[in-house]
Amino acid sequence: MEKYVIKGGSPLVGEVEIGGAKNAALAILAAACLTDDVVVIDNVPDASDTNAMMDAMRSIGVFVEKTGRHSVKINASQITGKVIDTEEIKKIRASYYLIGALLGKYNQADVVLPGGCFIGLRPIDQHIKGFTALGADVRIEHGIIHAKAEKLRASHIYLDVVSVGATINIMLAACMAEGKTIIENAAREPHVVDLANFLNSMGANIRGAGTDVIRVNGVQRLHGTEYTIIPDQIEAGTFMFAAAATRGDVTVKNVIPKHLESISAKLKEMGCEVEESDDAVRVVSTKRLNPTHVKTLPYPGFPTDMQPQVTVLLGNAGGISIVTESIFENRFKYVDELTRMGANIKVEGTVAIVDGVERYTGAEIVAPDLRAGAALVVAGLMADGITVVDNIKYIERGYEDFELKLQDLGAKIDKVDTDKEVQKFRLKYA
Ligand code: UD1
User: Fold this and answer.
1) Preceding omega of 300 cis (within 30 degrees of 0)
2) pTM surpassing 0.85?
3) Where are the domains of the chain?
């Protein structure tokens, strides 16, 4: 199984280009199924989750052609089945966007329940509430969600929790429903806005995305489009934190600084310099980080997908920090691994009390999920000695060329496949 081997201690210096947003791409790929015309999407990250989504779409007869590493041509006019129960689809959680898309297009969808990272219970009651409000009959039988409607009709839906997935799924199902659907307490994440822009470019009539009330005026049909996906907020944030973690100086390019404000604000509190320009953010760190408190919240709050990364940094800060996870109840699993590297972190429910230690020491650790995996790599970059991170398939779900981008910034990191290669790396840096 592939692993990352890392020799810590090198400050990251230079420039890094951020790719397209994985979470926007997953929604937009599914949304492309809403039309029978050709759709061209650019800036699709070459990560295993987006590739799995494309495989899942192919498995139901969608024509999906990669015309370049980041460009995809889609034609969903020949969808063969609405019953989707393939191995491809089970691999990713966002496959449930195909329910919204197929229900919106054909008034029927039967899709196997999603997988994804095990960071909490992840119920889908708000998705079901939305589909039902639009007039669908929804049942779950033998692990498959069956949604069917005579005709979808607009509705006024108040979400009980701010859910990115439910907001997206309801937008997908509602854009060709009769009348005006109103989603209250909607998620405001950048990828929700990106999906709305994409759907509008296909002829949908969606207003208010980016606020907590989204209005979807149903249209008769959607047409083909060509669209470029926004940069990935979390990939950018991870590199910003990696720069701060290693007392580096990194310019993170091709970003939307507005999307990074909560991340930049935390870095400033921790004593880093953050300089913003039109489409780049430079992070400079010269000293031991200050402790601070963090609570994850829906956008524009501090993202839960950056929680492991911030905790890793605070684990070496000069004092005690408190990190509160308010979105997913099981998102501190990586702390056990960090403890093996010398961290002093106590988790009580959804709160971590982080007592900063002078330094981490390299160890053999395992990535428990996507973002925690990336955070553990950052810990390896900070640590004395050599760290081996196993189970990197999780990291590859959401980061394209992670180790190559880090190498370009001066990190000593390799992707290896065998114990012999691990030994070779150890000898090289002994
Ligand atoms: C999406 C992102 C994920 C990110 C998360 C929060 C994608 C593919 N994934 O996940 O990276 O961490 O947003 O920003 O975009 N909830 C319910 N009922 C529901 C749906 C959600 O109670 O029907 C709860 C969840 O348990 C969680 C909270 O709402 O506590 C937020 O979840 P949600 O925003 O739906 O996350 P995802 O869309 O799964």
Assistant:
1) yes
2) yes
3) 3-18+231-428, 22-228
H helices of 175-329, in order, are 190-201, 233-245, 261-269, 307-314
Task: Give the 3-state secondary structure of residue 106.
Answer: helix
Share of the chain above pLDDT 70, in %: 97
Centre of ligand 1 to C-alpha 14, Å, is 34
For ligand 1, atom 38: residue with the closest CA: 165
- CA 54 – CA 74 distance, rounded (Å): 9
- State pLDDT tens for residues 349-389: 999 999 999 999 999 999 999 999 999 999 999 999 999 99
175 is catalytic: no
The superfamily (CATH) of domain 22-228 is Enolpyruvate transferase domain (3.65.10.10)
Write down the architecture of domain 3-18+231-428 according to CATH: Alpha-beta prism (3.65)
Alpha-carbon dihedral sign for residues 30, 121, 392, 316: positive
Residue nearest (by alpha carbon) to ligand 1 atom 4: 305
Q: Are 267 and 244 in contact (CB under 8 A)?
A: yes
Helices marked H in 175-229? 190-201
**What's the sign of the alpha-carbon dihedral 76, 79, 84, 87?**
negative
Annotated catalytic residue, options 33, 117, 175, 272: 117
Please give the pLDDT value at position 100. Answer: 97
Q: How far apart are CA 392 and CA 57, in angstroms?
A: 25
Q: Is the CB of 274 under 6 A from ligand 1?
A: no
With 0-12 / 13-18 / 19 or more C-beta atoms within 10 angstroms meaning exposed / middle / buried, residue 168 is: buried
Is the CB of residue 117 below 6 angstroms from any atom belonging to ligand 1?
no
**Cβ count near 87 (within 10 Å):** 11
Domains 3-18+231-428 and 22-228 in one fold: yes
Mutate which of 92, 121, 122, 232 for ligand 1? The one with the most ligand atoms within 8 Å of its CB, which is: 122
Rg of the chain in Å (alpha carbons): 22
Which residue among 138, 309, 327 has the greatest number of ligand 1 atoms within 8 angstroms of its CB, and so is best to mutate? 327
Which of these, 318, 324, 357, lies nearest to 339 by C-alpha position?
357
* Token pair listed for 358: 């002078």
Q: Is the C-beta atom of 160 inside 6 A of ligand 1?
A: no
